[in-house]
C-alpha cells in the first residue's frame, strides 16, 4: 500500500504550471476513496488488523512468562495463551487475505480511473495541444503518477493504524515502566531522526533516477517513431550512442539510489540490536532485584523496536503523501486547463464486461456552404502563422491551397479544423456560426488527412475503421485510396499487422491508409494536406481521379499541376496571407506570383 519513492522536491505550488490551483491532496484522495468505498473500507479494516496485530505477541509473551512464573491471574494457563495465539493467527490470516483482495480491487480501479480521465482529456483536446510535455514525461505521468496516486489510497489506513499502534504500544510500555521506556526511547529516537533526514536526501537521488528513466523512455519513443528517418539519414550509430549515453546516466542514478537506500536500511536495522542492548543494560540490574520481571523484559524487547519502527514508518508515510501530491500536480498539468478534480471524476471503467458500443455516427447535414472570414492564427511569441484569411467553399467543389514552403498552408487547414485555436475571424457552416471548430469540424462533417499521418499498431482494417462498424465501408475506402493492389501483396491483406505507427508500410502506403481512414468516415468535407507527396505519378493521378469521382467537397493543400488545374478555386498563400484567389486559369493571367509558383512549385524544385 505504501508508495515506492517517487518525489519531486520542488514545492507543489511551483509545479502547478498551467493547471491552476490544485486542491489539497486529501480532496483528491477522498474522491478516489468514494469511487469504490466498500472495497476501501474492507481493505482498511483488514489492514488495521494486520498493523495492530504486533501489539498482541508482546502482551502474550508477558502473559506466558507471568503464567510460568506464577504471577498471572488465577485461571490463566499456558493453554489459554496458546488458544489466543491460534485464534489471533487465524483472524490475522483471514484479514490479510480479505484485505489484499479488497485492496487490489480498489487500487486497480483508482489507478484505472485516473488513467482513464487523463487519456479522456488528452483525446478531447485539439491535436496540436494534446501533449504539453515530451512523450517520455507524458508516458511517465500516465503510468507512474497514476500509480503513485492510487498507492496513496493505502496511506490513509496505514497512517491511522500506524498511529494507533505507536500510541497504544507506547502507552503499554509506559504503564509497565516509565523510566526504562524514556531511557531507551530517547537514543532510538535520535538514530531514527537521523535516518529520516538521510532518507529525505535519498528521495532527491530517487527523483534523479526517475528523470533519467523518463529520458530513456523518451529516447526509445523517438527512435521508434523515426525509424525510417534514422535509416534514411544513416544515423543508426549516432542514435544508438545517444541511447547508450542516456542509459549510462540512468545506470549511475540507479546505482546511487540503490546504495543510498541500502545504507539507510542497514543503519536502521542495526538500531534493533541497539534497542535490545539498551533494554538489557537499563533493566538488567532491576531484573536481578525482581522489580522488572522476565515478562516485562519480553514486552519491552518486543514493543520497543516495533514502536520505533512504526514511528519511522510514519515519517515514510508523510513523505509518500507529499509525493502523491506532487504526482497530482504533474497529472493536472497534462489536463491543460481542465479542473484538476477532473482527474478523479467518477466514470464507469467496464472492467468486467465490454464497454457498450459507441453510439452510431449520425449522418452529417449536407454541406451547403462553408464560409471562413478573416481567420487568424499566429503562433505565440512569433509573427508566423496565417492572418485575415477568407474563403467560401460550395458543395461538390475543390479548393486547393498552395504556396511556397512555410507560407502557412498547414496552419490555415488546422485553424479551419479548430486544431489551432482561432485568434480572430469566424467560421460559418451552412450559415451558422461555428463556436468551437475543434469540436464541430470532425466526422461525419469533416475528415482530415495531415501531411504526416499517424497510424497505430494494429491491422490495416483497424486503422481504417478506428471504431466504425465493419459494414463494407473499408473495402470502398481502400478502393478510393488506391490501396487494394498493395493489400493484395501484403501477407494478410486488410488484416496485415502494420507494426508500431505503421513501420511495416512504405511512406506512400501510410499516406493512403490514412486517406482510406478519412474516406471511411464518408464526410461532407474532405480536408487533405499534401496527400500525394509520397506517391508515384501514376498512383497519385489515380488517387485524385477517384477522389474527384466521389464528388465530395474537397479542401486540399497541393502543388501538383493536375490538382491545381482541377480546382474550382486556388488560394495562393504568401507569408500567411492570401495573395491571389480564383480559378487557376484566371490566376495565371492575373498573378505573377502564381505564374512563378506554377512553373516551379516547391515539391518539384
Ligand atoms: N508550432 C509552431 N510554432 C511556431 N511556428 C510554427 C509552428 N508551426 C509552424 N510554424 C511556422 O509557421 C509558418 C507556417 O507554417 P506551415 O506549416 O503552415 O507552412 P506550410 O506552408 O504548410 O509549409 P510546408 O509547405 O513546408 O508544409 C512557418 O514559418 C513555420 O515555421
From TrEMBL:
A Pfam family: ABC_membrane
InterPro entries: AAA+_ATPase (IPR003593), ABC1_TM_dom (IPR011527), ABC1_TM_sf (IPR036640), ABC_transporter-like_ATP-bd (IPR003439), P-loop_NTPase (IPR027417), Type_1_exporter (IPR039421)
Superkingdom, natural source: Bacteria
GO molecular function: ABC-type transporter activity; ATP binding; ATP hydrolysis activity
Major subcellular site: membrane
Membrane topology category: Multi-pass membrane protein
A Gene Ontology cellular-component term: plasma membrane
Residue intervals passing through the bilayer: 38-56, 76-108, 148-174, 180-198, 262-285
Residue span, ABC transporter domain: 370-600
Keywords: ATP-binding, Membrane, Nucleotide-binding, Transmembrane, Transmembrane helix
Annotated region (Disordered), positions in chain: 1-20
Protein name (Swiss-Prot/TrEMBL): ABC transporter ATP-binding protein
Species assigned in the record: Saccharothrix syringae
Amino acid at each position: 500500500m505504501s508508495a515506492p519513492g517517487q518525489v519531486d522536491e520542488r514545492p507543489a505550488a511551483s509545479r502547478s504550471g498551467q493547471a491552476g490551483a490544485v486542491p489539497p491532496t486529501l480532496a483528491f484522495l477522498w474522491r478516489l476513496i468514494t469511487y469504490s468505498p466498500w472495497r476501501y473500507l474492507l481493505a482498511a479494516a483488514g489492514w488495521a488488523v494486520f498493523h495492530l496485530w504486533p501489539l498482541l505477541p508482546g502482551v502474550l509473551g508477558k502473559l506466558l512468562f507471568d503464567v510460568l512464573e506464577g504471577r498471572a491471574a488465577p485461571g490463566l494457563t499456558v493453554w489459554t495463551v496458546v488458544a489466543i495465539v491460534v485464534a489471533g493467527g487465524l483472524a490475522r490470516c483471514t484479514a490479510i487475505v480479505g484485505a489484499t483482495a479488497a485492496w487490489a480491487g480498489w487500487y486497480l480501479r483508482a489507478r484505472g480511473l485516473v488513467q482513464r480521465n487523463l487519456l479522456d482529456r488528452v483525446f478531447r483536446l485539439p491535436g496540436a495541444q494534446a501533449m504539453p510535455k515530451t512523450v517520455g514525461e507524458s508516458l511517465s505521468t500516465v503510468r507512474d503518477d497514476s500509480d503513485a496516486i492510487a498507492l496513496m489510497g493505502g496511506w490513509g489506513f496505514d497512517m491511522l493504524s500506524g498511529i494507533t499502534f505507536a500510541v497504544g504500544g507506547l502507552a503499554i510500555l509506559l504503564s509497565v515502566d516509565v523510566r526504562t521506556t524514556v531511557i531507551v526511547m530517547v537514543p532510538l529516537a535520535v538514530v531514527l531522526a537521523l535516518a529520516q533526514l538521510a532518507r529525505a536526501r535519498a528521495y532527491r537521488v530517487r527523483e534523479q533516477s526517475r528523470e533519467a528513466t523518463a529520458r530513456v523512455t523518451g529516447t526509445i519513443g523517438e527512435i521508434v517513431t523515426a525509424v525510417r528517418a534514422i535509416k534514411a539519414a544513416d544515423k543508426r550509430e549516432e542514435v544508438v550512442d545517444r541511447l547508450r549515453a542516456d542509459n549510462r546516466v540512468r545506470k549511475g542514478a540507479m546505482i546511487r539510489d540503490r546504495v543510498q537506500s541500502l545504507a539507510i536500511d542497514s543503519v536502521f536495522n542495526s538500531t534493533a540490536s541497539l534497542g535490545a542492548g539498551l533494554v538489557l543494560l537499563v533493566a538488567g540490574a532491576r531484573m536481578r532485584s525482581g522489580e522488572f520481571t522476565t515478562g516485562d523484559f519480553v514486552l519491552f524487547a518486543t514493543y520497543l523496536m516495533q514502536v520505533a519502527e512504526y514511528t519511522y514508518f510514519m515519517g515514510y508515510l508523510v513523505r509518500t503523501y507529499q509525493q502523491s501530491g506532487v504526482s497530482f500536480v504533474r497529472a493536472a498539468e497534462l489536463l491543460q486547463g481542465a479542473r484538476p478534480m477532473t482527474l478523479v471524476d467518477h466514470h464507469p471503467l467496464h472492467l468486467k464486461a465490454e464497454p457498450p458500443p459507441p453510439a452510431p455516427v449520425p449522418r452529417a447535414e449536407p454541406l451547403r456552404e462553408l464560409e471562413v472570414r478573416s481567420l487568424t492564427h499566429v503562433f505565440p511569441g512569433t509573427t508566423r502563422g496565417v492572418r485575415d484569411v477568407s474563403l467560401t467553399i460550395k458543395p461538390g467543389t475543390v479548393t486547393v491551397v498552395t504556396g511556397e514552403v512555410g507560407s502557412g498552408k498547414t496552419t490555415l487547414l488546422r485553424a479551419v479544423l479548430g486544431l489551432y485555436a482561432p485568434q480572430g475571424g469566424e467560421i460559418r457552416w451552412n450559415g451558422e456560426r461555428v463556436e468551437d471548430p475543434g469540436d464541430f469540424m470532425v466526422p461525419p462533417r469533416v475528415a482530415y488527412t495531415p501531411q504526416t499521418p499517424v497510424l497505430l499498431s494494429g491491422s490495416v482494417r483497424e486503422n481504417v475503421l478506428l471504431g466504425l462498424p465493419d459494414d463494407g465501408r473499408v473495402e470502398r475506402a481502400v478502393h478510393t485510396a488506391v490501396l487494394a493492389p498493395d493489400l493484395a501483396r501484403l501477407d494478410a491483406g486488410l488484416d496485415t499487422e502494420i507494426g508500431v505507427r505503421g513501420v511495416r508500410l512504405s511512406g506512400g502506403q501510410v499516406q493512403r491508409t490514412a486517406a482510406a481512414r478519412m474516406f471511411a468516415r464518408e464526410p461532407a468535407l474532405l480536408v487533405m494536406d499534401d496527400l500525394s507527396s509520397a506517391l508515384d505519378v501514376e498512383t497519385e493521378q489515380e488517387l485524385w481521379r477517384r477522389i474527384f469521382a466521389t464528388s465530395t467537397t474537397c479542401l486540399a493543400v497541393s502543388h501538383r499541376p493536375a490538382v491545381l488545374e482541377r480546382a474550382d478555386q486556388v488560394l495562393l498563400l504568401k507569408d500567411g496571407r492570401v495573395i491571389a484567389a480564383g480559378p487557376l486559369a484566371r490566376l495565371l493571367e492575373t498573378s505573377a506570383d502564381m505564374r512563378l509558383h506554377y512553373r516551379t512549385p516547391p515539391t518539384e524544385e
